[in-house]
Amino acid sequence: MTVNNSTILADNQTQIVNNGGQINLSNNSVIETGNWSVISLLNGATMTFDDSVLDLKEGTLDLANSSTVEFNNGSLFKTRVSANVKGRTPQTISSPDIDEPFTPNSINSGTRGDRIIVNGSRAEINSGTWIFGEGSVWEGLYFINSGSGRVNGSNANYIRASIENTQNIVFYNSITKIELSDIKYNRGFQVLEDSDVAMIGTNYHENIFGINIQNSNFYINDSAVYENEDDGIKIKYLKSHFVSDTLSVYSNSGTGIYNLGGSMHLQNTHVYDNEKWGLGNLSLFSPMVYNSQFGNNVYAEVVAFGFGFPYFYGKGSAYSEIYDVENPAVAPDRYLMMAFGDVPNPLYTNYIIVNTTDASRFYPDLSTFSFTISSGSSPTPDALYSTAMSYIAEEDYSTAYATLVSLINTYPSDIYSRIALSYLPFLYYRVNVPIMYSIYDFSGLYDYLDSISDRYLSEMKDMTIAHTYALEGSYLRAAEYYEQIIQSPSTISIGLIAELDQAYCNYMAVIYGLKGNVSGMTRTPRNYAELVSIEEEILNKLLNRGLEDSGDIVEMPALSTANYPNPFNPETVIEFGIRDAGFVNIEVFNIKGQKVKTLLNEFFESGTHSIVWHGTNDYGHAVGSGIYFYRLRSGEHSLTRKMLLLK
Fold it and tell me: Which residue, 581, 616, 626, is CA-closest to 602?
């Protein structure tokens, strides 16, 4: 069926049913629904909008049996108060333990579920909209090259809704504002490849994966990220920029905020009670931190490379705080602050409130950290660096760039000049490349880097050139520069960082089909699973490298566990790890706290194991849909996790 330049009014209680067929709307066509109206797409049906509009006004869009709605070429997907969007067909996920990033080419791979695709178009999802999976976790929402301008502009995507029980919420090269929303029970949330997303007044909780940001801008304000089964927020790769203000990140099963390559600016942010690090920065960019708190996380509260240790700043009485009232005798929880790799001495950590009476809680030692507030009045290397960081905090990137160049030119043999070099690509990008601009011109930066001749800066100069090639998309050239560093690094940590960045660049070359000779390179992942494996290997080496001088290697926690899929129907795999051999007990409880089933109670060796719960009670009877908890116990330790059974 084809509709051209026409309007279809689906009045109260009207039903539009497409059973396995295709409806194409084009040339300013409109479908507008009224109260209790239903659009049903069944059995692989598709509805395609081309320069047209779907206005879901207090009606329902019902997808089932692998059906699709797609908006192309300037179309508009609009919902109003009390609109419902539901999917009933899940997508098969082959790697439930990996939050594999989406690419436009991957949308037609694997087993399809129900899906909505906003491609080169715009969505306006208004207050009161409920987007959910009915009886299953449906495939989800894809925003591809959608929205334009600024996140607060009229041409951006706008979402104000409850979103739950989807496999994928993906923003790819898209501009989106998410406001006053509740996002829960989903598999993952990905902000990818030059997207610009703002999340305001929103709760993101009880999802399998946290918020995953890759090569994109993400602004989050007056929101909370909690009780997710992975890291709360993960920032990856060089073009990513993360800004938070009035944010709580707590009770996530991984690290609260984990940065693997981007830049961050945290304000009025509280990160606490997460099961790994509070703030982990394994990037050469120092996060800017203002008036924030980090406390009671299971591992260290703040951990970072010395080069990339957070820059805490404040005004008047606005100090950040680092605290921990738990047991420092437990190895992973031993440290409040950890700086590893090449560490400036002293490392200025101004505007922090932290208990320094126990020197053993600081790595490598308490004397590494200086808690004295520098006035920055004299033109010393640390004062110039401090001044530049203040300009970055104020988002005056042009002045920050000029200040760091002055630092490098004046003190080329100082460690702060090495740190300053690593910032130049990020700042040059912010000053010279507008958001969503596809042509990158870094010629001015390359000219400046070519002019640097000091031998002390040669390695960081090569690293900076590689970063710049990666920013402009010349991934194979970047990988070649990283290989030079890998072959002869000044420190083990620098070599490992170069391996991490090389792995990413060679993976991106595979994704974009770039042809080149990678033989002889150290890290050449062929797919995302291999990239994740390499990242985990290198990050473990980096973390352990930072501690091995003191003999304190990061230990496996006494217990760890996760289940997948979650939500599930009819069964889920519960994976658990135990540090010490012993008896293990796993019991399932309903939401009232009543025991439903004892899954196991037997002896296991140290390591990782798994067991399947088939959704039955101790009598073998199937249990109903709803929230369940399982409790893992071994020795003196126990963990409890939430599961959602949907039928």
Answer: 581
Those residues with Cβ within 8 angstroms of residue 237's Cβ, 6 or more apart along the chain or in another chain: 214, 215, 260, 261, 262, 504
Q: Which residues contact 613 (CB under 8 A, 6 or more apart)?
A: 563, 571, 572, 574, 588, 597, 599, 630, 643
Q: How confident is the model at residue 551 (pLDDT cuts 50, 70, 90)?
A: very low
55: in domain: yes
Confidence of residue 647 (pLDDT cuts 50, 70, 90): confident
Structure tokens given for 307: 């080069």
Tokens of 612: 């399947």
Residue 207 has pLDDT above 60, yes or no: yes
Last residue of a domain, one of 149, 176, 209: 209
Contact 303, 279 (CB under 8 A): yes
| 598 alpha carbon, distance to own chain's centre | 35
Query: Is 262 within a domain?
Result: no
Domain count, the chain: 2
Largest CA distance in the chain: 77
| Domain stop point among 209, 232, 252 | 209
Tally Cβ neighbours within 10 Å of residue 541.
Answer: 17
93-105 tens-digit pLDDT:
544 444 566 777 6
pLDDT at 88: 83
Sign of the dihedral through C-alpha 100, 104, 108, 109: negative
Check: CB of residue 25 under 8 Å from CB of residue 52: yes
Cα–Cα distance between 345 and 119 in angstroms, integer? 51
Residue 422 lies in a domain: no
For residue 494, the one-letter residue type is I
Whole-model pTM: value is: 0.81
CATH number of domain containing 595: 2.60.40.4070
pLDDT at 322 over 60: yes
Alpha-carbon distances of 549 from 343, 362, 364, 546, 553, rounded to whole Å: 14, 14, 9, 7, 9
* Number of Cβ atoms within 10 Å of the Cβ of 35: 12
Average pLDDT, the chain: 85
In a domain, 575, yes or no: yes
Structural domain containing residue 602: 559-645
Q: What is the DSSP string of 535-555?
A: HHHHHHHHHHHHHGGGT-PPP
Per-residue CA distances from 94 to 102, 109, 252, 570, 587 (Å)? 14, 11, 24, 17, 27
Using CB atoms within 10 A of its CB, is residue 6 exposed (0-12), middle (13-18) or buried (19+)? middle
Please give the Cα distance from 449 to 464 (Å, whole number). 8
